[in-house]
Every structure is written in C-alpha cells, then in structure tokens.
Design goal:
single chain, 534 residues, alpha+beta, six-stranded antiparallel beta sheet, 36% strand, globular
C-alpha cells in the first residue's frame, strides 16, 4: 500500500484535533453502562473517556517484544489499527521510524490486541504513526488509533451519554433479503427510541460514505453530496472547493477564523462556521412510510445518493426529520502544500495496494448489489436526519482529493462529533446501515464559543498559543501565535491540565479573565473579556 494512502487514512484525525486544543474537555467513563453478561452471544462492550468528541479507550497490544497497555482513539476514518512508531519498534513489529514521521505499514503482525474482555489474535496490517501530534493536543498519552478493520464484521454502538462502546456481531443479510430489516434484527436492542436509518456505502479501506444536503432556506437547497462519517473528527468538516462546486455561498454564515489545524502533515489555517442546516438522507421501508404518511408505495432510484430527486418523492408530504441544535462557515487559508501528499501517494507497497484496490472494487460492487436489492425488495421514501446551525470546520485541503481517490467518488467533507453527539450512533457495517437515535447532549457547554479567542496546545511542559481568533479580545491585546501562557486566572499553565485551562477560558459573555503571557513583548498580565464569537 502506498505510504501516502496510509497518511490519508489518518488525516481526518488531524482535523478532529483542531477544536479540542482550542476549547478542550474530557469526561470520565461511566461504569454503570450495559453489563457484559447482558449482551448477546459474541458481543463485547467497553467504557471510554470523551475528550471534545474523541472516544479514548484503554487497550493492550502484545508482540514478541512484550506487552503494552494504554489509550487509543476510536477512529472510523482510519482503515486499520495504528500504533505509535516508537512503540511499534519496542514491540518488535517495526525495524525503524520512518523519516519525517510518515505513516507506514509494520512488516510484522501483533500477536494479540485486547480491549475490555475481548481479544483478537494475529492482527495485521498494522499502521505505524507519529502519535505525538495527538498527545500534544489531547494532553493524554495516546498510543494509536482503533481503525475500521478491527470491527468491520460488527455493528458498532456508540453511546456518548453512557460513555460506552458495544460491538455486536452482524452477519449481514442474505442475497434477496432486505438489508434494513436484517440490520433492525441485529441493532434494535441498542439504537434506542426514534432511531432513523441512514444507508451508507463503504469505500477504499472502509470509509463510511453518506449522502447529505445543505439547506439555506425553504427555497434554497444544495444538490446532494458525499460526506465521510468519522468518529475521529471532533467537528464536521466541509471543503471550501466543495461549496463552490455545490454553488453554496458561505459568506453570510456566522464564522470565526484564525484557528489552526494540527495534523500529521502540518498545521493549516481554518474557520469554524455555522451551517444553516445540514441534512443526512435516510430511508424507511414502505410499510412504515405508508402507515405514517398514508402515501402510495414508492420505489427509490437504485443509487442512494439520488433517491431524493424522484418526482414521486417530491409529491409526498415532508419527510420526518430529527432536528437538533448545532453550528457552521467562512474563509480558510491552509498552509499545508499538496505536493508532499501527492509525492507520498506515489510510493506504493504493491501487494497491499493491490489488495486495497481489490477491496475497494469489491465494496463498490457490494454497494451496487445492495442498492439493487433495496429497489426490488424494500421500497422506501427519503427522510432526513438534520441539525440546524451546525458548527463545522471550513477549510481548503489536499485531503479532499485523496479521500475522493480512495472512495472512487467526490468526497465533500466529514461528519464528526459536532453532528453525532446529538444521537446514539449504531454503525452496522455488514448491512451498510447507520442508525441515529436522538439523545441528550453528552457534554452541555453553553459558553463553548464565549471566550477571549485563544487556541492552546501543550509543548512539553509549556502551554503555547497556536491560534488567535480574528477580531477577538485576544487579538486586540496583541497576543500572538507562539506566545507562552504562564497562567490563567491564577492557575499555573505548566502544572495544570490542558482541559482545565481550556474550560477556564469559557464563560458568560462580557465577563473577564486574567491571563499572563510571555512573548516578544515580554511577560504581560492581561485582563481579557470573554465575547460570544460564534
């Protein structure tokens, strides 16, 4: 497999980290969730910590070099289990650290991977990465990523409120039988009341592709486009060039710019914006639709991405939508060059690359077959799962091109935690069905965007400013990227958890906070006003 392709599997996590370093939070896992002995045969469950949307769980990896236990980020945007390159060398599954920290494939397998009471023997392929960027922004000793290959034969139930992940065996559906009904049998005990079913496609190394629209007003809707569902992203992400392609103008959207995007390949700039309304397209079987709406039987197009375009669908009464709160958009000016990603993508490890290409072709065939069976066996009507005023990252990035190459179709962005947190999430991989059940906000933050406008990151024992929001109180006081934060409201930055420092920045609009910073202007004590920025 090409090293560049490995990098692309991890890139979404870098996007995920941007807001977590700006306004960080972590919540301890609860232990009162689903009991292991109450699960169906073959299922397993484990608790996690929630760090601004990142699902961080404890696991153990074993190889000839020994055993190591630590924390990993659950990342559906990553294809495989990924391990820090230094740890991979210590375990004996890798011989060296790639130059520049470029993600690579380990030449040897893990003997065992264990999470909770569940273990997997002989795990391969394994990616090696420089996990330092993840550790810097989370302030946690993260060892790697839990990628899709570990749970591709299961339904993944992600409960943000209970802080628990459950993996349920799912054999998929028989040829000629409805995928939705097969998924309902597997997941109905977990997805909760009011769940909406969203069909998805799998592409490349297991990317989850869903169809979406942006709704600006009753009479202004974008054409359908494709997003990757990524649990490793703390915010949904839209690529600026995609909006131009969709003829959506974000200039009127509320936005804050001046933040940066820590990634495995540099730190481009970006904006956080409020999308007026972001919709994901779902489906319901005819029986449910008819009972609810009293409409005649409808048959969707075979391609899920165009199901909403049929005239018969437009004649139906408006589809039911799960609409909750959220955010969204403006200008970004990324600094990461495209050339590096393109150069890396040319360096192929031929056998794994061929295997991935074959897997991708097989997935596309499976998607098409599923669509044909749904058309013949499971008439449906389009319904939407939507969030108004959805906060998302807006940026330009080479990630769009590389994700589109992996997926075999145009990819316009990511669905991240800022969308998913409103739901209990069930991802049934074998049946290609995503279930979203409305849930309570797992971490209410009324003043998330009421701050002086600073983005922070830990560098060793120091806390540094990595972003200053344009036209913010922090910018007005001349605080610059690179300045060292000495203290915040009396808390010494060097000895205080990054989470606590980030929370201290938030508060009622108009209130003040005392910050001591050191930069080119020397050591200064500043009284900054908190202001609603978005």
């Amino acid at each position: 497999m090409a090293k560049g392709r490995l990098a692309r599997m991890l890139f979404p996590l870098g996007i995920a980290l941007v807001v977590s370093v700006w306004l960080p939070t972590i919540t301890s896992a609860e232990t009162s969730s689903t009991r292991q002995d109450s699960l169906p045969d073959g299922a397993y469950s484990f608790p996690f910590e929630l760090y601004e949307g990142l699902v961080i769980a404890k696991a153990t990896v074993s190889a000839d070099g020994g055993d190591s236990a630590g924390t990993f980020v659950l990342d559906t945007g990553a294809g495989f289990l990924a391990i820090d390159d230094s740890l991979a060398m210590w375990l004996g599954i890798a011989d060296s650290i790639p130059f520049g920290g470029t993600p690579s494939l380990a030449p040897r397998a893990l003997k065992r991977f264990q999470i909770g009471d569940h273990s997997i023997d002989f795990v391969q392929p394994i990616m090696t990465i420089d996990a330092d960027v993840i550790r810097r922004v989370t302030d946690r000793p993260v060892l790697g990523l839990l990628g899709q290959r570990l749970y591709q034969d299961r339904a993944l139930v992600l409960d943000y409120v209970a802080r628990r992940v459950t993996m349920v065996p799912s054999a998929g559906h028989d040829a000629g039988s409805p995928a939705l009904e097969a998924s309902r049998v597997v997941a109905s005990s977990f997805y909760g009341v009011g769940a909406r079913a969203i069909p998805f496609r799998l592409a490349g190394d297991g990317k989850i592709l869903v169809t979406a629209r942006i709704v600006v007003s009753r009479f202004a809707r974008s054409k359908p486009f494709t997003l990757v569902l990524d649990t490793g992203a703390t915010k949904s992400t839209l690529f600026r060039s995609s909006l131009e392609e969709l003829r959506v103008d974000p200039k009127s959207w509320n936005a804050i710019c001046g933040i940066t995007l820590p990634t495995l390949f540099g730190t481009p700039s970006a904006c956080v914006v409020r999308v007026p309304r972001l919709e994901l397209e779902g489906f319901v079987p005819h029986s449910a639709a008819a009972a609810e709406a009293g409409t005649p039987r409808e048959t969707p197009p075979s391609n899920a991405s165009t199901a909403h375009a049929s005239k018969t669908t437009r004649r139906m009464r408006p589809a039911v939508s799960a609409t909750l709160g959220g955010n969204a958009s403006a200008n970004a000016n990324p600094a990461t060059p495209v050339a590096k990603a393109q150069e890396d993508s040319a360096n192929a490890v031929s056998d794994e690359s061929s295997r991935t290409a074959a897997d991708s072709a097989e997935l596309r065939t499976k998607n098409a077959q599923d669509a044909d069976r749904r058309t013949a066996k499971e008439p449906w009507r389009a319904e939407t799962v939507a969030i108004r005023d959805h906060d998302a990252i807006l940026m330009d990035s080479p990630l769009q091109a590389v994700l589109s190459q992996i997926a075999g179709e145009s990819v316009h962005g990511l669905i991240g935690y800022s969308f998913l947190k409103a739901f209990r999430v069930t991802i049934d991989y074998p049946n290609r069905v995503l279930w979203l059940a409305p849930a309570a906000d797992p971490d209410p933050r009324p003043f998330e965007y009421s701050t002086p406008g600073l983005q922070l990151e830990r560098r060793g024992t120091e806390v540094r400013v990595t972003g200053v929001v344009e036209d913010s109180p922090a910018a007005a006081e001349g605080i610059s990227v690179g300045d060292r934060v000495v203290s915040i409201d009396g808390r010494q930055a060097a000895s205080t958890d990054l989470t606590t420092l980030g929370r201290a920045l938030e508060g009622e609009p108009g209130s003040h906070i005392e910050i001591v910073v050191e930069g080119t202007k020397g050591v200064r004590t500043l009284k900054l006003q908190r202001r609603k920025l978005l």
